[in-house]
Design a protein that fits this description.
Strand content: under 5%
Helix content: over 70%
Oligomer: single chain
Distance between the termini: 44 Å
Structural class: mainly alpha
Order of helices and strands: HHHHHH
Largest sheet: none
Shape: elongated
Number of strands: 0
Radius of gyration: 20 Å
Length: about 170
């Protein structure tokens, strides 16, 4: 029963986080030409949405996802792909937060091409996460993949890079 509840929390967190990230570039485009109280209102609304909607959604998605990993022992190769995609979504989340801090200073604007690019990349990553989770691709069987996910593979990869690794 607890796994089902955690999955519900996870899906709600993902939906909230994704929606918040997808709306941000369109809010950033509204910045162009605004001054005074209208600029202040847009800044307040954008920060409010990021802090009280997108960020809690991210926390819910990540925390419930980590808990589900250990409750369900999800240690399969496709799951590593999902985690890499989620890491990309976290980077986008952080970059959106940095944009909020910088965008609302005087004489700043958000280029339309950047908004389109960020939206396309975000939609692509969200879609790839959904495709990976729902499709659960069988990437085992390839020698390179099996070598990469073999126990101790990380130690072997890092042995030539780090001096203290044995």
């Amino acid at each position: 029963m607890i796994v089902v509840l955690l999955k519900i929390v996870h899906v709600v967190g993902i939906a909230t986080w994704s929606a918040g990230l997808l709306v941000m570039p369109f809010l950033f485009l509204q910045r162009r030409g605004l001054e005074g109280y209208r600029l202040h209102d847009l800044h307040n609304f954008t920060r409010f949405l990021y802090i009280t909607f997108a960020s809690p959604g991210a926390y819910l998605a990540v925390a419930s996802g980590i808990t589900l990993i250990f409750l369900q022992a999800t240690f399969v190769p496709w799951f590593s792909i999902k985690l890499a995609l989620v890491a990309m979504l976290v980077v986008i989340h952080l970059l959106v937060g940095l944009a909020i801090m910088r965008l609302f200073e005087p004489e700043q604007s958000y280029p339309r091409l950047r908004a389109i690019a960020v939206s396309v990349v975000t939609i692509g990553i969200i879609g790839a996460i959904l495709a990976t989770v729902l499709g659960k691709p069988d990437i085992a069987g390839h020698a390179a993949v099996e070598d990469f996910f073999a126990p101790g593979a990380l130690a072997e990869m890092l042995s030539g890079i780090t001096a203290w690794w044995k």
